[in-house]
Design goal:
The protein has 241 residues and is an alpha/beta fold. It is built from 7 helices and 9 strands, in the order βαβααββααβββαβαβ. It starts with a strand and ends in a 9-residue tail after the last strand. GO terms for molecular function: 6-phosphogluconolactonase activity. It catalyses: 6-phospho-D-glucono-1,5-lactone + H2O = 6-phospho-D-gluconate + H(+).
Length: 241
């Protein structure tokens, strides 16, 4: 695991944009496509906005990137809470992406059907490969959740399925999510975390005893890939660094 600390969220987004663009270019030297899992929530918005502007909008060969999502709320695409909608507004509508390379989690069918369809899509891409995604971008909630792996929920213990859905009572909605097994087969996982409100949780996740029931972000441990935590000083405030 590598920890990268920036002064504030703005500097963090700049650092991550540069890191991601360099990583994409490096990987594409040895293969024809790049698979990128996007994260929802507020933290990546600034990052997506940067990637949609110069120099990254010209440096990155967007037509070679296949986009996936880590999780989705079961709300229509038109809903402001929809993770895919945010990514389109901040990034995908502004760069030269091939529409056929965008793979959203559908919310126009039942959550169960959506999860099944998404798993089929992933297995058609990666079924015979040891490695899944080239890059998975994740966030961490102040409760230690990542993706839709929330503390105390059964999905935390999923060992086989790559994608699942469940009703999250605390939010009164269904969620569709990748699971730890498929993410842990990725070539690289990058956590993006900011804010003093996450400092104690971040310390527990990185430095504390393993307790995935309480801190599901601890589940994300790539089997053979890289793990990077990009955080700001406020989020790192409680750590021994």
């Amino acid at each position: 695991m590598e920890l990268h600390i920036a002064k504030d969220p703005a500097q963090l987004s700049e650092n991550v944009a540069a890191w991601i663009s360099n990583y994409i270019l490096e990987v594409l030297q040895t293969q024809e496509r790049f698979t990128f899992v996007l994260s929802g929530g507020n933290t990546p918005k600034q990052l997506y906005s940067l990637l949609a502007k110069a120099p990254y909008n010209m440096m990155i060969p967007w037509e070679k990137i296949h986009f996936f999502w880590g999780d989705e709320r079961d709300v229509p695409f038109e809903d402001d809470r929809n993770n895919a909608r945010m990514a389109f507004e901040e990034l995908l509508d502004k760069v030269a992406v091939n529409p056929d390379n965008i793979h959203i989690m559908r919310t126009d069918i039942s959550p169960e059907a959506s999860a099944t369809a998404y798993e089929q899509t992933l297995k058609s891409y990666f079924g015979k490969e040891n490695t899944t995604f080239d890059l998975v971008l994740l966030g961490m909630g102040d409760d230690g959740h990542t993706l839709s792996l929330f503390p105390g929920t059964p999905v935390v213990h999923e060992k086989k399925a790559w994608v699942t859905s469940f009703f999250l009572e605390a939010q009164n909605m269904y969620r569709i999510t990748l699971t730890a097994p498929v993410v842990n087969r990725a070539a690289c996982v990058l956590f993006l975390t900011t804010g003093a409100n996450k400092a104690i949780t971040l310390k527990n996740v990185i430095e504390g005893t393993f307790d995935a029931e309480k801190f599901p972000s601890q589940l994300i441990r790539p089997e053979e890939g890289e793990l990077h935590w990009f955080v700001d000083e406020a989020a790192a405030g409680a750590m021994e660094v």
